[in-house]
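User: Can you fold this complex?
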Amino acid sequence: MNSLILRMIAGRIVVTLMTLLIVAIVIFCATTLLPGDVVQILLGQSATPEAVAGLRQAMHLDQPAALRFLLWLKNLATGDLGVSYVNGIPVAELIGNRLANSLKLAGVTAALSVPVALTLGITAAILRGTLVDRLVAVVTIAVISVPEFMVATLAVIVFAVTLGWLPALSMTGDVTTLAGLIKAFAMPVITLSFVISAQMIRMTRAAVIETLSAPYVEMALLKGASRRRMVLHHALPNALGPIVNAVALSLSYLLGGVIIVETIFNYPGIAKLMLDAVATRDLPLIQGCAMIFCFAYLLLITIADIVTIVSNPRLRHA
Amino acid sequence: MSRLVEVRDLRIQARTDAGRIVEIIRGVSFDIDEGEIVALIGESGSGKTTIALDLMGYTRPGCRVTGGTVTLDGVEMGALSEGERARMRGSLVSYVPQSAAAAFNPAHTIMDQVVEVVRIHGSMPVAEARTKAVGLFRALALPNPETIGERYPHQVSGGQLQRLSAAMALIGDPKLVIFDEPTTALDVTTQVEVLRAFKAVMRKGGIAGVYVSHDLAVVAQIADRIIVLRHGEIQEAGRTADILERPQHPYTRQLLAAFRPGAAPRPARLDQDEAPLLVVRDVVAGYGKRDANGLPALRILKGVSLELARGRNLGIVGESGCGKSTLARVIAGILPAAKGEILLEGRPLAPDFRQRRPEDLRDLQIVFQSADTALNPHQSIGEILGRPLAFYHGLGGRTREARIDQLLDMVRLPRPLRHRRPGELSGGQKQRINLARALAADAKLILCDEITSALDTVVAAAIIDLLKELQRELSLSYLFISHDIETVRAICDEVVVMYKGEKVEQLRPDVNDGRPTQPYSRLLFSSVPQLRTGWLDGLAQDPELTRAFAQR
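Assistant: Here's the predicted assembly.
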């Protein structure tokens, strides 16, 4: 570690924080622009104008948007996500439980798909041009091309309806035993793994092929290194940056982009919570969910960038 | 002495990008004795590297051995499995690459990569290998031999990396070391040191070597025998002294002739009264932020002055990073000077070419090193040459067509070439077109920036001859920039020596007979390899001087 690296990492974190601020502005503007009046929805058709005005004042909705934004931002900075319009429960509490569920699903999917994807990507790169490589290429293209609701629906038809091995809905049966847990997670995890692995496989393959053509890999061959050593010891450390970025991009999808999968399998995750919040015009909840998605995304990308910086020996030993 | 290497009727095919199959090695046979150093000499595309790599049982992707045998220490390489070949690489035969900078993995320390051979083959304990590596570093005259291994490749210089790659090749006690143009990318003062280190270590260990190079003068210092290759065939093979002094084959004679360029043409008359064609006075230029005085933070040129008389040529020599190419860019106005003035025929030139008058632009043309990047690949030769004719002289229609034919005649190229594109031309032909474009403007001064560096020796010599002929016909002047002192001397009557952005001295034929007087110029000139055996062994350089100036 040296001052150059620390400076670059600090700079990267500042950029992340600024992006987060811009994201907050965009989210606030977007939710403010959502059609429909919350107060009207909350109080129903028969509300008196006085009641509407009173509630509006109580919810600070009569104040200018800029002021409301600053207030929201201040609360956000202190960890207060506000109170749900619909049921008066703090948003943090609502999200907390669901976020844990989503993280569990994401964690299991990542633990399964990242090693598989990296292995397949590296194998395809080593066996470039062979039958294995082409098979992997065809399968990944096919998986990318099929939309995830297709995969999910087909999985339900095959495993739940026809074979009857797995429940069609997650979290219905008991999740206290290992077998029950596997049953509950199996289909969402498989569907999500399909979606995120394809991209990782392709990017890993490209990055490893790129470094395998470097002169220092040929030099390793001429030193008598085995293929395994050439790839693992010589090519991979130099392909780390692009691979970590591909992994981060794919994983970020697991938090924000799983709406379809959570809906189809009725999985009580944060994406489904946000979908429900949109239906009820629950602005603080929507904003809270959106901020968490964006934060998770930025966090992963920032980590990937920092890994790229730290893994560069030219920067590490400048 | 027993035979270490036997190559019999080796044939290798390659598949081109277009999918065509060509035979690049056409039946090559030779032997190498134990402890003998054999040079493979040839121009680019002669197959010298392909042969050398095949001695290790390795062919690059796209190439295939179609016939013949390579026997190394009694074992036929072609009959082995890939795993058995891998066991011989690094331990019996090892490789020193052309660009050590690219051949070292940026992710690992130098020591890790040097002892990797031992780690792979398990030939000795790693701790022992480290001690041996330090000994090799010392034998190869590397600075700080105890600690240099802890560094990463980007932390040491190119000349050091080249010697470190030799240590990497020698650590496994091979019987044969293959050197693939190991000093081509180095400056001459560095090359002397590296060659000396190689030679000492090889001789001490009695190790056989294959030295691949295009440079006869370098090979003359290190090889026992020379094999001259062309188009994948052996033209001539013999002892080094015989090849150099009694060449039999016409191609070998041609190569040797290209290495002994004639002396610079002395101008017939020197009119002292006439104003100089080009005056550069106190020029400062560089990159980065400008300070309060308008001077850039990173100064590449630190106050350079020179004069060039009409009809004469001025050479600029120096090692990489001395600022010679920057000087050409500053004179051409591509990089505006921060300070100082440039006068052409007494007229001051604006620092930025965009502010120069059309006649100034016309009179001063620049020819770049790489014709590949300087010529638009999508335009025909006719279009490339027609553009300056229209721009500077307003020529159009039939007069322009006639002038294009004339220009092709001037650079000795057939007229039908005008319908081709640059991609269909050879390297030498492209460089002639590059030159013809400068001639199209009817320039008075042509800046030649390393225009022969990317060309094979014979082709480069022909370009130099062309430059001389054109000068006689058109009363041109050249500012000739090159790291190759022999080439500069072949065409220039005066030579400016540069070092770290400053002019060290200007050599004139009428002062000290054109010989250098300053310590750095003397070191630089004495480091240029000469085409006789024993030059390196007889070369006496002041070690203090070398340490002070050589950028290794």
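Residues 69 and 78 of chain B are 7 Å apart (CA to CA). Chain B has 22 helices and 20 strands.
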